[in-house]
Please model this.
Amino acid sequence: MLRRLSSIVRRHGLANRRYNSTEVSRVARIGKLPEGYDLVEVLRASKAVLSPIEQIVPAQDHVLLRFFDKDLARRFLLTKSNPYVKDCEYDRPVPLVSAKMAAYCGLGAQRKVRLTAATPLTVETARAALSAHEDPPVTDIRIHNGTAFIDFADINSAIKVVNSPDVTGLVDAKFEYFETARQFRTPDFVSRALEIRLAGKRTIVISGIQDVAKAEEAVWSTVGSKTSERVLDSQIVPEQKAMVLAFSTARFANEFRRKFSPKGFQVNVTMVKTHLYRPEVTAIGMGASRTLQIRGDGSQNLAQFGQFGSVLQAVQKDDVTEITYKSFWDSMNALLQLESGNHGLTGFDGVSVSFSKTEPVTIAPPRLPPSSEPSPSAGGLNFVEKAKSLASEALPQEV
Model:
C-alpha cells in the first residue's frame, strides 16, 4: 500500500513539474498619481471601468490593473487619452489567468455585486454587511431604490462574498452578481455586427432523427472536433427524435447550418434565437472550454468524471488526459468541485487540472464518498430542459 502511494505521489510530482508556467504582460500600471488621489475618479478618468478587470491594486502613487489577458491590457494602454492619467505602462508579467478564475467567470462571476434585503439599504448598512467578510477591498458602493451595488477591487473577493451562506445583520438579504456588459470581455471571435444581422440565432435543432449514432457522427464531423469551443452544449432529446446544439455565437451556428449536409439520411434543421452567452464567451476568451486537462498517467478510473455530467469523450495524450463534457457548464462546475474537494473521485489527489490555455489548479482530496450517480451543474440541467422545449417547438406543425 505504501509502495503504491509513493509511486502515485512521485508520478503526480513529475507530472506537475513538467508544467511550465507561462507569464504574460496583462497588468497595466497607472503611475505618478498625486497624494490622496481618488481611486474611483482615477478608474473613471482612465476609462478602466469600461474593461473587465480581474484585480485592482491601489498603492500610494499608482494603481495596478490586472486584466484577464494581454489583449485587454494592450487595448487599455492604446486607448488612454485622459490627461489626468499621465503615466500608463505595462507592469511586470504575471501567469495566465487560473483555470479556477476562468471557470467561475464562465458561470457568471464578476466584480460587480448586488445586495438586496427586506428593508432599504444604505451605504452604511452595506458596509456593515461586508465587515462580516473581513472588509474586502471595494472601489465603489452605490444605492439605488434601496439596493446596494458594490464594485469589488478584485473578483476573488466578490466570489467569496456571493458564495457565503448568509448575510450578517440583515433580514432576507442576498449577495448576487450583477450582470453588466462592461464586466464581460468580447473576444475576437465575437462579431457584434454579425450577431445582430443573424438575429441572435445561436441554437440549432436537428429533428426527424432515425439513427442517433449517424446523426451525432455527422454533427461532429461538420463541427470539426468534439472538443470545439464553438459548441457550448449538445443534447439528444429521444422522445422528440431530436438533437439540440448550443453554439457560443450566431456566426458559428450559421456556419454549421450552411455546412451540415448528412449523407444517407435526411433530417430537419431549425435555427433558434437565444440570448447572448456573455459569461461563457468571456470565459472562452480566457481559455476555458468543455475539455479538462488532467496531468497523470491515465491509469485511474476515468469513468469517475461522469459524476459531474455526461462525458463526450476521454482521450489520453502522453501524460495528459483530456476529459470533454457535453456541457460547457458541467465542465466549469467539474473543475471548481475538483479544486475545492467537493467530489468523490479517488486516485487524483494532488494532480493538476486545467483548460488548455489557463494556469492549472490542484485537485483536492475528496470530501464526498465515491458515487456513480451524475450530478450535473445547474447550467447543464437548465439546458437539458431548454433542449426539450426547443425540440418540441421545432416539430412540424400538423395542419
Notes: The radius of gyration is 23 Å.
